[in-house]
Amino acid sequence: MIRTKVIVAFVGVVALTGCAHLIVITPDVSQLDPRTVTPVDRNVGYVISEADRGKQVETPGGGGDKVSYYPYRELEPALFRVLSNLFNRVYRLGALSDADAPRANNITLVFVPEIETSSSSDGAFTWPPTDFAVNLTCRVFDRDGKLILERRVMGKGRASFSEFKSDFALAAKRAGLNAMLNLQRELSDARELRR
Amino acid sequence: MRSTALKAVLEVVLLVLMAGCTIVAPKYAPLPDSVNRLRDAALAPVKIGTFTSDPKNKDSVERLSVRGNPYVSPYGDSFAAYLQEALRQDLEAARLLDPSSSVEVTGVLLRNELNALGFVTADATDRRALRRDSKWAGPVRQDQVGEARVGFTLRRCDSGSTSVHQLPNRPPEVA
User: Fold this and answer.
1) Is the Cβ of B120 closer than 8 Å to some Cβ of chain A?
2) How far is residue A104's CA from residue B174's CA, in Å, rounded to a whole number?
3) Smaller CB count within 10 Å for chain B: N or C?
C-alpha cells in the first residue's frame, strides 16, 4: 500500500517536473518575401561558430517551467533566407579569419550575427511562453576585416493559449520572423552594402 | 479497495505518460549549398506543379513513425506536398521560380523512409524516392527517378517531449 503511494508520488513528480520543455524556434522562412527587397549583385558570407551553433539556452515559460532551444542553429535558416533574398551568393564560413573562402568565392562582405533571447508567460497552468523577444545584432565586415556596418533589431512575438495549443513555439517563431523582417529591411536600406 | 483504486490511478498516469504524441516535421528551410548549386547551374526559371503520392504505396509513403509516434508533414499532412514546397522554396531562393514559365515540374513520391536511431537524440534521414516529370507547355518531355534526402535531429527529454530539427549542415540532395 505504502509502496504504491510512493510510486504514484514519484511518477507524479516526474510528470510535473521533467527537464525544460524542448521547442524549435525556426520561423516559417517562406514568409521572408524576396520581392520586397532590391537585390545587390555581391557574394557574401556569414559566420556562426560551431560553439554558437551548439549553444542551448533555457528561458522562462509558464507555471514556473522553462523552455529550451538553440537560438543560433534554429534562426540560421531565416538569416540565410534574408541574405539570399538580398545578395547573389551566400556562403557559410567557419570563422571571420577564414581567408581562403572569400577569395575563392569572390565574397566581399561577411555578416556576423549575435543573438539574445528572452521569454515569459502570463499563464499559470500552461508551460509554452506567451511572449518572446529576439534581439539580433548584425555586424558586417569587408574583405579586409574592417567593420563597415552594425545594425541592431528586435523582434517580438505573442501567442495566446488558443493559438499555441497546436504549436508550443508559436510566440518564439513570431518573434524570430519579426526580427528577421526588421533585419531584412535594415540591410536593404543600408547604402554601405551597395557601394 | 483503496489499493486497487491507487493502482488504477497509477496505470492511467503511466498510460498518459507513455501515450504517443504526434510529431510534426519542421517546415522546410532552404540551405546555402543547395541554393548556390541551383544558382550556379544557370537554369531557366520553371514553375512548380502538383506533387502526388504513388497510389500503389500511398499508405507507406504518407505514414511515418518515430519511436512509435506518428510523424506527419506540416504541409497538409502530406510528404508529397512537403517535397513540392521544398522544391518551390529552393527555386524561389535561387530566383528560378516563374509561375508564367512554360516549363512545369511535377513529381510522384514513390518511397518514403525515416530512419531514427538512438533514444534520447538521433540524427534521422528521411529518404524519399521521387519521380520528377518536366512538361514543356504540354506533353511530358523528361521523366527522371531520383532520391531526396532530408536530415533531421531528434531530441527527447526525460519528461517525454520530443523536438525535431532540420539539420543545417546536411542539405537536401535530389539526385
Assistant:
1) no
2) 26
3) N
For residues B108 and B131, the answer to whether their CB atoms sit within 8 Å is yes
Residue B43 has pLDDT above 90, yes or no: no
**Residue A96, phi then psi, degrees to nearest 5:** -65, -30
Check if B163 contacts A (Cβ < 8 Å).
yes
What are the two backbone dihedrals, phi and then psi, of residue B158, each rounded to the nearest 5 degrees?
Answer: -70, -10
Which residues on chain B are in Cβ contact (under 8 Å) with A180?
Answer: none
> Taking a C-beta distance cutoff of 8 angstroms, is the pair A24, B23 a contact?
no
What is the pTM assigned to this prediction? 0.78
Between A and B, how many residue pairs show a Cβ–Cβ distance under 8 A? 102
Beta bridge partners of B131: B108, B145
Mutation site, A11, A13, A24, interface B, largest B CB count within 10 A: A24
Rounded Cα distance, B20 and B15, in Å:
9
CB B26 within 8 A of CB B163: no
Complex confidence, ipTM: 0.76
